[in-house]
Amino acid sequence: MLGILLAGCDQTPANNPNPIGNIDASPEDYPYLQEQLFQLATSDNREPFAALHRIDYETGEVTVVIEYARDAQEDIRWAVQALNGEIQVDLEGTMQTRLTLQAMMSLAQHPRINFVRVPVRVR
Questions:
Q1: Distance between CA 28 and CA 79 in Å, rounded?
Q2: What does the alpha-carbon distance between residue 20 and residue 70 come to, in Å, rounded to a whole number?
Q3: Is 38 helix (H, G, I), strand (E, B) or coil?
Q4: Nearest to 65 by CA among 115, 9, 122
Q5: What is the pLDDT along the chain (123 residues), one digit of tens a residue?
Q6: Are the C-beta atoms of residues 82 and 5 closer than 8 Å to each other?
Q7: Residue-wise pLDDT tens digits, 79-110
Q8: Beta bridge partners of 64
């Protein structure tokens, strides 16, 4: 499973012009990734895009919420940690993490993840 997650994964976050590597990707390739997060990952101007959409993004890392099957908690924790992500909050079925864009893209294709989205913010 780790090989699937880490395939082509460059953990260097800073100023990577194409954080998903040389993959010819489209939003349809990532059906469980919120569209704004896909756009952030593929944007040439990530900082302004993140600011405009109120996405917590800095130096190549983003804060996201991972929704997963309730019985997959240990699998998801392991995958986040294997990709050097920081688990901030872990509730049953939902985990808030901070990780690189490349790691986010890898996790979005994990078979036990239901959805990856930005955290809900109260205005």
A1: 22
A2: 28
A3: helix
A4: 115
A5: 444 444 434 444 444 444 454 445 789 999 999 999 999 999 989 999 999 999 999 989 999 999 999 899 999 999 999 999 999 999 989 999 999 999 999 999 999 999 999 998 766
A6: yes
A7: 999 999 999 999 989 999 999 999 999 999 99
A8: 97
What is the fold of 29-117?
Alpha-Beta Plaits (3.30.70)
Q: What is the CA radius of gyration of the chain?
A: 13
Domain segments of the chain as ranges: 29-117
Written as six digits, the tokens of 88 are: 């901030």
pTM above 0.85, yes or no: no
Write the single-letter amino acid at 83. L
Helix (H) or strand (E) holding 48, with range, is helix 46-52
